[in-house]
User: Fold ABC transporter permease from Thermalbibacter longus.
Amino acid sequence: MSAYIIRRLVQSALLIFVIASLVSIFIQLLPGDPAYIILGETNATPERVAAVRRELGLDRPLLIQYADWLSGVVRGDLGQSLTSKRPIGPDLAKRLPRTFELITASMTLAVLLGIPAGILAARYRNRAPDVLVSLFSVIWISTPVFVSGTLLLLVFGVKLRLLPATGYVSFADDPVEHLKRLILPATSLALLDMAVILRMTRSSLLEVLGEDYVRTARAKGLAEPSVLFRHALRNALIPVVTIVGLQAGTLLGGTVLIEFIFNWPGVSSYLIAAINQRDYPVVQAVVLVIATIFVLLNLLTDLIYAVIDPRIKYA
Assistant:
């Protein structure tokens, strides 16, 4: 196990390095110049643009800029924003917990509702509960996140006014208002993942229920709940863990639209603003952090396999 973990950590580090390098190259190829955005269209004379580029270090060769950025990352310094002149690290440290909170809330909701619904559908296969649950999953799998988010905002935030439509309030300032404003964006993110987890739980459990050891347990006279939860469910959850791990990573991408729709000041909104302003260091830093989190989530998912199923061994 230890050799496997070390090997995966090395592979993960190399993958993160490749992603960061590619982003550093491609972001420079985007049209537009940060100097023009900083100065504005009316003040962007050639002399002023050249002066700003020298001040920001953008007149240096791309390879030198990349080497300076990479050396800073190794030292734990993510650099400085071109537009705000603020250090990127503190801004990311402030916004990252907000995005984590949104992802954690939505994934918790998706798991708590998706797995029981999948068990219910498998337990009553081809009967009314199965049909209703399957219909729900098809609807939400076919609905994009920005559509479900907009619908929830219009219905519960604007029309019924049961919850705040947009905006963010710190938990320290007002815990109740903070949780109210978390419900709609977290639910919007959770709906698609809940449907995916539901379908995977159902199909995996139905497959396991057809195994010989399950039929043997029934032949011994064990009650159906005991067969379902003590013998079948543990093995059926192995592919579900895979889906949960992958969906947790993809939620980082889903938050881009949700944070924009609900005006949630997380990492994704920070990234969008940086792209619009051609703020290269911020884009590089955010992508590096997101890639690191995604890779570590995949590694954690693999390690959880061994806990769920002792038959799985890593060399």
Summary: The chain has a mean pLDDT of 83. The chain has two domains: 2-74, 97-308. Residues 2-74 form one domain. The first helix runs from residue 2 to 28.
